[in-house]
Structure prediction request, 431 residues.
Amino acid sequence: MILEKYFYNQLDNQALKSLLQRPKIDFGSIFETVQPIIDQVENDGDQALIALTQKFDGVQLSVVTINPATVSVELDEAIKTAIDTAFDNIYRFHKAQQPADLEVETMPGVKCSRTSRAIQRVGLYVPGGTAILPSSAMMLSIPAMIAGCEQVVLATPPKKDGTVAPEIIYIAQKAKVNTILLAGGAQAVAAMALGTETVPKVDKILGPGNQYVTAAKMLLQNSEAQISIDMPAGPSEVLVIADEEANPEFVAADLLSQAEHGKDSQVVLVATTSFNIDGLEQALAEQLEALPRRDIAALALKNSYTVVVEDLIQAFDFSNEYAPEHLIVNVANPDNYRERIINAGSVFLGNLTPESVGDYASGTNHTLPTYGYARMYSGVNLASYQKSITMQSLTEEGLKNIGPSVEKLAELEELQAHKNAVTLRLKAIES
Prediction:
């Protein structure tokens, strides 16, 4: 048996709590490793980036940053078409998220409004390492362009020759990225948060990464760098709910598509008793053997398991407790269960909706909360690049209507200057 099996009705509270835990990350020791990297970048700037890239990636940089607009790239037409298709879909979905301004007269003469403004300077982290990820470049840069961010820095680990994949540069050009930083890891996050001689300082950092990238984002968010982050994302994960209508081969492919991300990924199957688990196990074994990244996927499967439930009510109860990054609902009539989904990063409904489409080209964003953070975080969206500003304006009628309440509340809190700011104006109106 590839996936260890548990029966939901036999789980006590302690066993259930244990199952809901992700593979443990020792952030204490990771913070100890990352903090000196941050300090080195803060002290030595570009020279630190050059030294750390040589140390961790074995790459000798001749330049730390490039302007993508000045680089000429050539792409295979089939690759270019695929990127353009995904780009257009992601753009269309995120453009539709633009919020309308809000104005409300809360009482006669008192108008309150809310409007959105772009975060001026953002840093986008696009992982590299074992594979280039043009999909992440699109997911992060397209909403930044739509929001109207003035300064966009895209960081990605360089190739062994010190260059950036042409696919990444092409996307950066289409999305009007200002600067590409040829560095990855905690050092790239630190450079964007703190700024260096050639790396502009940003106000917010978005994008997925390994545990060191995540730790750097968390540390810098709570430092004098004064940045915010999108979310404390961790290793990728998927939870698949399957009933008798689910095709075992499809389910196996969906589980493996997340398992191949990394050895610390986790995949979970929540299956009704009527689902063909034996067929799934056979399909998993066959498909795993054929994967180029089978060794990585096999290690991830050791972190993974199956939960057998009596019905779909139990399935969604477990899923909401787990709060998966990706949730695949591979059951009959999946639309009937939309209201039962409370905690999930992104959801894929039906037998013909693999998680892969969301990773690449359907239009939704694949930068999502992991590790159970879907309970309180949303995935990256247009609002991730914006902030709201509230405004208010009062007429004489408005100040007369609201003033006495403000005076009384200021008295109650013993803030006399607050009261005076209203009282003086009311007297001026009366005179």
